[in-house]
Design brief:
Blueprint lengths: L1 H9 L8 H15 L2 E4 L1 H4 L4 H8 L7 E5 L2 H4 L23 H12 L6 E5 L13 H13 L7
Parallel strand pairs: 1-2, 2-3
């Protein structure tokens, strides 16, 4: 499948990569062979309801999505990279913010809950300045998860 996808979308269309065709046809073709995919795009920003419904509508009823939870919720501070400008290295005020997660991440997912197989939380490496003991992270995570509605994978 990988080579057929690559050949189909890398072949020149008026001398250019057919990005529009790729965006339109890639997921449905992928779903003909496989039954799940992880959406890493949700890691960079909160997914919108229209976006989620759009990708779910491109797949069969038995297709399942994994969504990676946005780093706004899962990382304590901005990486010390130029792209973060003055925020680089500074604390994120919404780390493990259950209210924000419920409203900005889970709420848009409600209409496609039937197609979500899992929500994946990727936490950054823990440094001594983050938590003195691992149990402190577990306590914060337990508090965060305890505030969420039940029934989410």
């Amino acid at each position: 499948m990988r080579s057929s996808l690559r050949a189909r979308f890398n072949s020149p269309y008026r001398g250019k990569f057919a990005e529009t065709r790729f965006k339109r046809d890639c997921l449905p073709e992928y779903a003909e062979v496989l039954k799940t995919v992880c959406v890493d795009a949700a890691y960079c920003t909160f997914p919108g309801q229209q976006y989620l419904e759009g990708i779910v509508n491109q797949t069969p009823d038995d297709f399942v999505f994994g969504l990676e939870v946005t780093d706004t919720i899962t990382t304590r501070e901005f990486l010390n990279l130029d792209r973060f400008g003055q925020r680089a290295g500074k604390a994120k005020e919404n780390y493990l913010n259950a209210d924000l997660f419920a409203n900005a991440f889970l709420k848009p997912c409600e209409s496609v809950l039937h197609a979500i197989g899992l929500l994946m939380f990727e936490f950054s490496r823990r440094w001594p300045t983050d938590y003195e003991h691992g149990r402190d992270f577990i306590a914060d995570l337990d508090n965060f998860l305890g505030q969420l509605l039940k029934g989410w994978p």
